[in-house]
Amino acid sequence: MSFAGFSGSALAAGHPVTWKGEQEPGTIIILTGQRRLYLVTAPGEARSYPIAVGKEGAQWIGTTRVVRKAKDPDWRPTASMRAKNPKLPEFVKGGPGNPLGARALYLDEGYLRIHGNNDESSIGFAKSSGCYRMYNEDVIELYELVQTGSTVIVAE
Questions:
Q1: What is the DSSP code (8-state) at residue 121?
Q2: Cα–Cα distance measured from residue 12 to residue 18, given in angstroms and rounded to the nearest whole number
Q3: Domains of the chain
Q4: Nearest CA to 52 among 108, 120, 111, 146?
Q5: What is the pLDDT of residues 123-149, one digit of tens each?
Q6: What's the whole-model pTM score?
Q7: In degrees rounded to 5, what are phi and psi of residue 142?
Q8: Would you list the DSSP string of 48-112?
Q9: Which residue has the higher pLDDT, 14 or 48?
Q10: What is the pLDDT of residue 6?
Q11: Confidence of residue 58 (pLDDT cuts 50, 70, 90)
Q12: What is the maximum span of the chain, computed from C-alpha positions, in angstroms?
């Protein structure tokens, strides 16, 4: 799958860009190599957000959809995350300090989510266990703009 991409400056969070792809408004495109998430807002238009992506070996490529949205989501590390780091708790209630941040969009692909975070220094890098991390202010904006059922395309 190829993407026509965007034109214009895409460095600022939530920055409007000209989108050259043919995706429908409401579609999320994640380009892992660029460490950017794009939300198509209208034909030829999108919003661009910086993100963190999965570490090498933890990146998923494909098409999925948003199946659930949550404000101040609770976090339950997976068994494999806890095996790699036994100090992780079994459960973290939503709120300040929660690794999922202020909002989460749950994807219909295993444990993948688009979410906020409590470590803003990870944005722009391949640092996650596979999820897509955003600045909290960005994921709050995205949460309001995206509907359950929206298509999410993840490509390199």
A1: G
A2: 14
A3: 6-155 (2.40.440.10)
A4: 120
A5: 999 989 889 999 999 999 999 999 999
A6: 0.89
A7: -60, -40
A8: EEE-BEEPTT----EEEEEEEEEES--B---HHHHHH-TTS-S-B-SSTT-TT-SEEEEESSTT-
A9: 48
A10: 47
A11: confident
A12: 47
